[in-house]
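Can anyone check this?
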Amino acid sequence: MYCKMKFESYPIFVINLPHRKDRREMIIYKFEMLGITNYQFVEAIHGVNLLNINYREEVSKRLNIDYELLSVEFWQSRRNWKTMSNKVTTILPQVGCYLSHLHALQLATEQGHKEVIIMEDDAIIKKDIDFTLFSPPSDYDLFYLGGTFWHLTPYREEGSIIKVNPEHLKLCGTYCYLVNNLKEKVNVLRSVFKLGAAKDKVPDFKNGETRLRASPIDLFFINHYQRYGNCYFINPQLVVHPEEHDSDIENDKLKRKYTLSFTY
């Protein structure tokens, strides 16, 4: 049995680009209206700016990642980055999103947190439901407070807390999720910078010893934590995302033959 926790009980790390003051102000306004004070902003990595040598050096220092591993050539190689496109304008925004989530998790780990909510600055907190209390299962790896549902079959399960079953349903989007075991998550995301051949399917990936191939962050979570771990989502979702949007850190829309839905 697990107890209900308040949304504001968890530290909230909001990923935001410095020039998007409008989104920053909107998040602050929303939190003030809800009485939430336990949050901080994390400066997002602007993927396209990795073309700039000075910016790449800055990100290298910030993330403690070798400068050469942030080069465009590194990310264009399919040995390092799983993608159907080799276009820089497609890859780099997605890389920026991946690195931004890594940055947020690293900061949370350095600050000694055990569990945190990671939120992107264009997430929309729903107004029509009471989300002050929720109960993450004790064995969770990722607990999605919102997501885009990727239906592979017409599968549906009743309940307020539902485990992701990747045989039927996957969750795209990383705009608001609760995460624990932060050091493990950081090691897993940083494993893409290890030496050797990168792999896509590794059942014991959590040890961080195997080099994984990087991909857009939501797909990375699908291929590893949703496939081999324990991921859940809250139903109905507490946080949603605009159906039509132009994301600053990942602006290339997903194109799949499966059905994407914004409601479960």
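Reply from J.R.: I decoded it. The helical segments are 21-34, 53-63, 72-76, 88-110, 182-190, 217-228.
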